[in-house]
UniProtKB/TrEMBL annotation:
CDD domains: crotonase-like
PROSITE patterns: ENOYL_COA_HYDRATASE (PS00166)
GO BP term, pick one: fatty acid beta-oxidation
Listed name of the protein: Enoyl-CoA hydratase-related protein
Molecular function in Gene Ontology: lyase activity
InterPro entries in the record: ClpP/crotonase-like_dom_sf, Enoyl-CoA_hyd/isom_CS, Enoyl-CoA_hydra/iso, Enoyl-CoA_hydra_C
Matches recorded under SUPFAM superfamilies: ClpP/crotonase
UniProt keyword list: Lyase
Keyword presence, Cytoplasm: no
PANTHER family: ENOYL-COA HYDRATASE, MITOCHONDRIAL, ENOYL-COA HYDRATASE-RELATED
């Protein structure tokens, strides 16, 4: 499949998606959101792909936000539709994939860019990264889940301050607040993400998918996370991965998982 605004490379069961609009600091226009939706859907269905790394092209930005030039003249209805469709196609979509997605935040992650990084399963930042939700400075609020996911990740008080001051965090501040898991020199960012991905590759893809589902259930309205966990735990007992994992342990050898 050909994409206009993203690049995809695949190596050792790890797919790397690079958002590729460097002259616009990788700002998310609707066409890029559509490309990302199609790519994530396809990669998640591919049993060979066990981890996805998401990054931005160039050394300056992961994603500098939703494309302001596209929505500057929108009406109430168009604005509402923009947020709803974006959440459905990309932000909620990524969060609920069974394949783990790591955000490699290689520079500015602002507005929709930070919201996209927060929709990923966890985040690793380069030392030059800057993160913020500056939407109120444009007369709007975060619309791709930022008002929900930022408090989940860094706590309500910090999220409230960050959103209503339109402030930016440095990579080190983001690490201190728990927004990113690691900070590494920019030149080492993708190698570091690949090293973490390699650790994930050793584990059961089936169990990883269920763990993501159970963890996410804690943050979903009307879901009981403990019940989701019980059901997902039980299902694992019917899989080849469970048989293989436990047998390999008892036979003192490395497990070879198939994700089934
Ligand atoms: N939407 C559309 N275009 C964007 C963009 C966005 N969110 N962010 C950057 N760009 C474009 C700029 O318009 C500029 O395009 P041009 O060269 O055709 O004029 C290009 O990307 C480079 O950006 P520029 O502002 O010149 O770079 P800078 O180094 O001076 O500043 C930022 C970098 C990130 C601080 C600045 O681009 C910025 O504030 N961007 C908007 C951030 C934002 O508010 N995001 C939330 C959107 S809801």
């Amino acid at each position: 499949m050909n994409y206009e605004n993203i690049l995809i490379t695949i190596e050792n069961n790890i797919a790397t998606i690079t958002i590729n609009r460097p002259t616009k600091l990788n700002a998310l226009n609707v066409a890029t959101i559509n490309d990302l939706h199609k790519a994530f859907k396809k990669l998640d269905k591919n049993i060979e792909i066990q981890v996805i790394i998401l990054t931005g092209s160039g050394e300056k930005a992961f994603v500098a936000g939703a494309d302001i030039s596209e929505f500057a003249h929108y009406s109430i209805e168009e604005g509402t539709k923009l947020a709803a469709e974006g959440q459905e196609k990309l932000f909620d979509f990524v969060e609920n994939l069974k394949t783990p997605v790591i955000a490699a935040v290689n520079g500015f992650a602002l507005g929709g860019g930070l919201e996209l990084a927060m929709a990923c399963h966890f985040r690793i930042a380069s030392d030059n990264a800057k993160m913020g939700l500056p939407e109120v400075s444009l007369g709007v609020i975060p619309g791709y889940g930022g008002t929900q996911r930022l408090p989940q990740l860094i706590g309500k008080g910090r999220a409230m301050e960050m959103i209503i001051t339109a402030g930016m965090l440095t990579a080190d501040d983001a690490y201190r607040t728990g927004l990113v898991n690691h900070v590494v020199p920019q030149a080492e960012l993708l190698t570091f993400c690949n090293d973490i991905a390699s650790k994930i590759l050793k584990n059961s893809p089936y169990a990883i998918g269920k763990a993501i589902k159970a963890i996410n259930a804690n943050f979903k309205e009307g879901k009981n996370g403990y019940e989701t966990e019980i059901k997902a735990f039980g299902k694992c007992f019917g899989t080849q991965d469970f048989k293989e994992g436990t047998t390999a342990f008892l036979e003192k050898r490395k497990a070879v998982f198939t994700g089934k």
